[in-house]
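Input.
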Amino acid sequence: MTQKQFRLSAYQFKPSWQGALILLICVPLFIKLGFWQYGKAMLKMEIEAQYKKTVSSELTQLPNGVEELTALQYKKVRVKGVYDTEHQILIDNQVEGAQAGYHVVTPLKLEGTNDTVLINRGWIAGGVKRDDVPVFVTPSSTVEVVGQLWMPNKKIFTLETDEQRQAETKVWQYLDVPRYQKLVPKLLPIVIKLDEKSEAGGFVRHWEMPASKIASHLGYAYQWFGFALASILIYVFTGFKRRTE
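Output.
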């Protein structure tokens, strides 16, 4: 089997089959990765737009449907209820001002309903030793909670085993809503981050929209597209050989 040769002045285009094979594998892969990063950037742009649109509005009651709750993410809510101290937990590995600590998450039994919602009351410092669990005070009377509605992240990487997740402990590595729903009946799959000005038993609260890194995703996308283009140019450049008479 002979290869076709394209001549250009003193050179002829005679690519190798190995180079063609690498090109056929790499270019589609690079383009796919580029569109993946570009899609992530567009998704985060939509999230930021939704955040800015809904952050200024306020709700006085929560809907029951999960889809309705998802659509209301980032809205400001105002609810009343009583804290369930029996089932409150600490989320480990939370940092504030370069100091390690915990986020205090306490279920709130909503007034006038059978529903319960999780309240992130903010950050508290950890003890001197790793095993020193901090002691804190929780209001026992009815409180009015004002805060922002957030949907917990479902994609969590953890080194915890199933046995560790099922163990009865007050310190969790991350907020596992399905796990929580087994402990607390009628628990809504949302979290209300207590407003910084609220006096409903809060701690350090410096809530911010998570860094979206839109520019980084776009940069990665253009980088992958650049790799695809560079692969083609290298293939063409190395395919030209000087003619020998």
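Residues 79 and 125 are 27 Å apart (CA to CA).
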